[in-house]
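User: Hi! I'm working on a homework problem where we have to compare a predicted structure to a textbook description. Could you give me the structure for the chain below?
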Amino acid sequence: MKRLILAALLGSTIIASDLWASTAFISNEKDNTVSVLDLDQMKVTRTFKVGKRPRGIILSKDNKRLYICTSNDDTVEIYDSVNETKIGELPSGADPEQFALHPDDRKLYIANEDDALTTVVDVKTSQVLAQIDVGVEPEGMAVSHNGKIAITTSETTNMVHWIDTQSHELFDNTLVDQRPRYAVFEQDDSLLWVSSEIGGTVSVIDVKDRQIIKKINFAIKGIHKDRVQPVGMRLSHDGKYAYIALGPANHVAVVNRKTYEVEKYILVGRRVWHLEFSPDEKLLLTTNGVSGDVTLIDTQNLKAVKSIKVGRYPWGIAVKP
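Assistant: Happy to help. Predicted structure tokens:
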């Protein structure tokens, strides 16, 4: 009966059994907690305490460990993703916000906003492998799927910094619009998408020559352009859509990846920060900082189907199958 009810809620195109046992971890930066959201029951089942001001949150490749940037503690905490107990810490430099795990599941690339550094840490040994000078106020982090390139975006310098993951050296910079916050590679690593929060744009960059090939603008009827502030992004594996969180505009933009045109704006909660798919990509979850909830978007019908209260100022999301 429960599965039938869930299928009815999400529409006949979504099969409830596909979502069975999936868990979302939501970092709440004002509460110093993580909410655990059961995607089958569509509700928060428990909450656990973490360090101060948790933001970036990701899972290891085997989904056994949960890494959390506790920004005000200047550290990355490690939790067992099954029983949610703390099992360790990693050195990170000052004010870690976002990070990215190398495909080898060993090297963690951390943006240290206060130090203008990217710190590289071996998650097995807790050894700092490198500290790389980047621009002022680095935040966004990404690693290519082939593991050859790491990306840091610096909010004040307005640049994308390209790092060779073997030498740990900066080999190029790309100027983008004001306050770049997030970066994500296409599945084949041919393109990099970068959101610029204050610039109000998303730049699509050719990885081969590090040049911008397309700049995407947004316009929502009835919303002033200054409120359109792109932050988190997700690219669907089928190559069809880019989903872009538009901050205080309270919408997610759905962008056609072939034409780079916005096909739809989906209304979600207030101050949408970051996004993550369910394992089958039939749901897209959004963290809405000001309204303190998570919105679930049906990606087949491109509409919001439910909002779920979590903690205060939810920021990051990680989903475990």
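For your comparison, note the following. Residues 1-20 have pLDDT under 50 and may be disordered. DSSP finds one helix and 28 strands in the chain. Good luck with the assignment!
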